[in-house]
Amino acid sequence: MNVDEDLDKLLDNLPFFIQENLYNHPNKDKLIEVVMDLGRRPEARFTTGPEFLSQKIISWQDIDYTTKRISKFSNDNRAGIERTLHRISCMRNRQFLINGLTCRVGRAIFGTISVIRDLLESGQSILILGKPGVGKTTIIREIARVLSDEMERRVIIVDTSNEIAGDSDIPHLGIGKARRMQVSKTELQHQVMIEAVENHMPEVIIIDEIGSELEALAACTISEKGVQLVGTTHGNCLENLIKNPALADLIGGIQYVTLSDDEAKRRGTQKSILERKAYPAFQIAIEINDQDTWTIHENVTKSIDLLLRGNYSVSQLRQLCNDDKTKIKYYKSALNFVPLGQSTYNLNNLNGVKQTDWKFLNTHNISKFQTIKTKHLLVYSYSLSNNLIKEAISKIGFKLTLTKEIQNATIIIGLKKHLKQNFKLKKLAEQKNIPIYTINRATVYQLKKLIQFLIDQKI
């Protein structure tokens, strides 16, 4: 691995008595950040542990000396040093005066993602999870360089705090040929994400620190548009996202569903259980355990389903050895897992769900519908994601074809609240003698029950 850190450019902006101790420090290359708090001794944090740098305490003059030599602080209290990757974050008192600084070292590490090179080539969206300071930003910076330079993809980076490409209008060389969009205010990140897709025709979008519900929804929208996503978020593992309502949409969203007595008994669970609502925005998840050990979920959909059932085990562990070789360990999932597609549902036996949830608008077409052959079933979906329908189909194990032409469809499926307002569609369906079914909510669970109901009607 090659490291480009420009550490001296950071040290030159610190008070002299701090510079003096760090320039010749034996662990200088392992420095993570320098902390300067008013009235306290300066502290350096290394990968090996923290260490005080001087007996002298930090004064107002010391803090003022540093803040005057760096760029202005943005509304998220972060600043940088021109043409470097270093980040300076400030703390303020109640009068809005700066009384503390965290000076974090930014490094461009070339070769750090050799462990997941094969995952990048797959073209699937990747979510990177890890606690603060574990190196997520360094990883996605190198991902941007590899995708743009070596794989020749059109890459756009949404750089909210200028951490990925540095604090300058000219991006750092560490991102290669990738283009960078800066964000004027943190709360506007989700808007810039959508703008990147609409205006600049990217093949890949890279986002650091997805942290709000609006940003999670923007990520889902980008995924639906067929653009590869690479993003990071705080959390040790996938289970943290399940418990985080603002970010749950990244992995498909979570909802409570009610099972029938027989199904609950077969599964050995309670009648009210948690299930995933939709298809995840990211197909692959990487948990950064430490700098050299990463847990890989190559199928986020399956991992989330297993987690919600309580019989989950790690799928893959990758470790970078000292000789730059990657060691991969595979773990089998629990053997008692039964895919949802193996279950058969009867609407009349499901507690809390009435058969009237499926509104058959053209009742006079029942006999025609029952004569349709399964292999020729063409479905036109209205106000429903094709990915959602495909997932429901895969769980049932039922073959049908999605069509974009209403006149070719044998049935129409859509959301009740949207179909009610579309009189033109209902009139066209009546003219073409096409039956319409609606569901109340766009969830995999309701779609599965509807498809199973359709199968039962035809038998």
UniProtKB/TrEMBL annotation:
SMART domains: AAA (SM00382). Gene3D superfamilies: P-loop containing nucleotide triphosphate hydrolases (3.40.50.300). Keywords: ATP-binding, Chloroplast, Nucleotide-binding, Plastid. Pfam families: PTPase, Spore_III_AA. Residues 122-261 form the AAA+ ATPase domain. One of its GO terms (molecular function) is ATP binding. PANTHER family: KINASE-RELATED, P-LOOP CONTAINING NUCLEOSIDE TRIPHOSPHATE HYDROLASES SUPERFAMILY PROTEIN. This is AAA+ ATPase domain-containing protein. It comes from Sundstroemia setigera. The gene is ycf45.
